[in-house]
Write a structure and sequence with these properties.
With 196 residues, this protein is mainly beta. It contains two helices and ten strands.
Amino acid sequence: GWLHEEKVENQQVVLALRRELDNGEAEAIALALQLKANLILMDERDGRQDVYANCSADHGATWRANDVRIDTGTSVGSAASFVPRVCTDGSGCVYVAWTEPGNGSSPSVYFNKSCDLCATWLAAPIRVDHAGTQASMINPAFLSCDATGNVYLGWSDDRATGSGLDEDMDAYVNVSHDRGSTWQFPTDAKINGTGV
């Protein structure tokens, strides 16, 4: 497909940039350096970063006339939404997950979807994690989906310690079997011991 996910290889650059920037900005800049990109766009048109989506039904030749803001759980530009992950299932559904403080100060993992090539989205994003107020840092690691309606979302967070240190992050996963309408685990499934 025309959508390609690329992982940041040099985490030392990310760590250095995180002294002045949030994690999403740091990863975007590190990836741009890695790929020798000529241009990187971080959308802060309304204040802090928001997540916008747009779709193409013809492999990028044309796009919808307007992009749509999909992190609608907070006021426009009021909270930094970062590290968005995107997955398409090949049947018109587009899934997006990201991290943001939401209406509180603790970060959370949010999810939104469109199953009509970005014409409509959920009215409000779904919070997928159950970290409560314990986590000081959450990083979505992967979002995967298939044509049968399964959506898999994994992330790491530091809810066990609240330290904000990478070595204190634990890995969690949740899964939906109905295109992200409901999520299987009422509490997050931890898939490792302390420190990913």
